[in-house]
Amino acid sequence: MKRYFVALLLSWVSMFPSTGTFGQQTSFKVLAFYSTKAEPDHVLFAEGALKFFSGLSAKNNFTFDSTSNWDDMNDFNLGKYQVVVWLNDEPSKA
After folding, report:
1. Please, which contacts does 72-80 make with residues 24 or more away whose CB atoms are closer than 8 Å?
2. I want to staple 66 with a disulfide (CB 3.0 to 4.6 A). Which of 1, 32, 46, 80 is the partner?
3. Model confidence, pTM
4. CB–CB of 28/16 below 8 Å?
């Protein structure tokens, strides 16, 4: 399932060409949620994905933000992003 989301995001990112122009506005914004309190393999996956997408965003002119604070999942904050990714966990049920 996680591979599907990564593949989907990568295919979407590939639609936006990399221009490398200094000072150009980013084409879209991505927010990734992750947890450090998940199973160790899932934490390693998230750490690798964070590094990968950070590098990809720099090369392809989009903003990649990440957070482990699930309180950031609210209308005000999510309204700033066009893509939201859950890397390795889900919001806790209150």
Report:
1. 72/31, 72/33, 73/33, 77/31, 78/31, 80/29, 80/31
2. 32
3. 0.70
4. yes
